Amino acid sequence: MKTRKRAYQRSGQIIVLAVMTIMLLVACTKEVPGSIPQNRSTAAEPSAGEAGNPSEMPAAATVSSRTEFQSEDQSNHQVKQEAESPEGESNYDPIEAVLNMYEALQANDSTLYFRYADIPSVRMSPAKLKVLFEEAGKREVRPERFKLFDREGLDRESRQMLALTYGSQAEIVLEELSQGDHNLWFVTAFTDGLKVVEQSTVYPGAYELGREATMEELIAIEIQHTAEDREFLAAKAKQPVWNPVQTVSLLYQAAQAEDAEAFYAMSGGGEGYFSGQYARDMVEFTEWMKSFESVQHISIESVPPENMAGSYREEYNKSFGDTWQFIVAWDPKHEAGYQGTYWIMAPSEDGIQYVVKQTLTANLESFFK
User: Fold this and answer.
1) Taking Cα atoms as reference points, which of 160, 165, 158, 200 lies closest to residue 352?
2) What confidence tier does 137 reach under pLDDT thresholds 50, 70, 90?
């Protein structure tokens, strides 16, 4: 991934800044020895085991009273994310997310790969991840071959299927291959950043549409196929493709986009807490999300039962069995307290998704005493 254009575009600026920095350091070291900042690449380096489990989402609570259920390497992960975002650059570029994933693959770094990608079929099959590493090592990735597909060019049914499968704010990145073929990379946002969540390939003449078929037609059918494949995979593995934290992230995405259909489906449909499908169910979350540009600006984390008050654990065990999970979306505007929304999530009856069993917005301090 050393071929990115922006590295060359900045080379002149970097030389000037380097000279100025050396002059400044020479002047400062006489008076303040040891004040030279640590190199960013080493200061932000994560621990060896960090992010090894792709189903774990990093916590980002900002007050010490909440950190009792944060691990040390989760904090390192947060530092790493901040350090990789130079001032003035966007953290929300889907193409950059795909390039970061490729960089991890070419470095043969599975920990880094799962920071930028979570494709269910790859997560569930180490053999497929090995194939990805091998294929990435054999090719040169050219950033100019990637472009963002305008999803507004899709028909309404395909746009809705995209939202129901990958989230209301999902984007499609096209990677130009040879002979008119293209890789499709589906990218969506979670609380810990943009992630590549699916890949497929389209080519001229696919699906018996003829070689004159438009890219919109090809992608529309491929969205339907990938949705069916993911549902089949979840049923076969008896494991949801989204974990509880990801599911809650997608609920907030839907609320922010005012996509009631996706919000209802992601919450569990008729089996979930919002089974009445009333319009007012989503209003609270839509209004809350108007304060934020992205779900990446809020902290959503899973709280282990052992960190909760015993009375609540007993109550939820009686009501929801032993498979429930307690997810909290903290309100960044209340950094000094416990204001937030909890979501009790449990597997659906068919086991292919997590559904909302209960939710409440309040001061949650009592839940941790």
Assistant:
1) 165
2) confident
Structural tokens at position 44: 């932000």
Cα 369 to Cα 309: distance, rounded to the nearest angstrom = 5
Order the strands of the 146-149 sheet from edge to edge: 146-149, 171-176, 182-190, 193-202
Residue ranges of alpha helices (H) inside the chain are 5-9, 11-29, 40-43, 72-83, 94-106, 110-116, 120-123, 126-137, 156-166, 215-237, 244-256, 260-266, 283-289, 310-320
Backbone φ and ψ of 102, nearest 5°: -60, -40
Angle between helices 156-166 and 215-237 (to 10 degrees): 30
For residue 162, how many other CB atoms are within 10 A of its CB?
A: 25
Which residues lie across from 356 on neighbouring strands?
345
- Residue bearing the bigger pLDDT, 86 or 134: 134
Token pair listed for 322: 């032993």
The type of residue at 217 is E
The token pair at 277 is 């499908």
CA distance 104 to 2: 12
- Over the stretch 98-108, which tens digit does the pLDDT of each residue have? 999 999 999 99
Distance between CA atoms of residues 50 and 45, nearest Å = 10
The secondary structure element, H or E, covering residue 361 is strand 354-363
CB–CB of 277/190 below 8 Å?
Answer: no
